[in-house]
Amino acid sequence: MKWVALAGFLVIGANVRADAKKSFLKAVKLQCSKTDKQAKELATGGRTGNVVKYRLCNKGKIKLDDTCRLKCVDNSSSIGD
Predict the structure, then answer these.
(1) Residue 32 CB: number of other CB atoms within 10 A?
(2) Does residue 76 fall inside a structural domain?
(3) Exposed, middle or buried by CB within 10 Å (0-12, 13-18, 19+), for 10?
(4) pTM of the shown model
(5) Residues 57, 69: contact at Cβ < 8 Å?
(6) Residue 19: inside a domain
(7) Any domain includes 80
(8) Mind spelling out the 3-state secondary structure of the chain?
């Protein structure tokens, strides 16, 4: 039973990360007029990566490079998702 719960958790976690990355890539292409390749290069991972910064958004804008500041919904004052 523990293995089933762990497997379910891992699948759900992977889907959440995939959805966050898809949203990030879509926003970069739309707001910054970047190509697929350029957007993927900006989609850095990890706890301090751009995808997480976009997902957690606490400033309203994220500076990705000198030509792109990505607008996001400020989640710092909201509870839940």
Answers:
(1) 17
(2) no
(3) exposed
(4) 0.69
(5) no
(6) yes
(7) no
(8) CHHHHHHHHHHHHHHHHHHHHHHHHHHHHHHHCCCHHHHHHHCCCCCCCHHHHHHHCCCCEEEEECCEEEECCCCCCCCCC
Measured distance CA(63)–CA(67) in Å, rounded: 9
Neighbours of 31 (CB within 10 A): 14
Is 90 exceeded by the pLDDT of residue 40? Answer: yes
Query: pLDDT class for 38, splitting at 50, 70, 90?
Result: very high
- For residue 73 the two structure tokens come to 């919904």
Q: Is residue 77 part of a domain?
A: no
Count of domains for the chain:
1
Distance (Å, rounded) from C-alpha 79 to C-alpha 59? 16
Q: Which two tokens stand for residue 25?
A: 């890539």
Name which residue leads in pLDDT, 8 or 60: 60
- Structural domain boundaries enclosing 27: 2-71
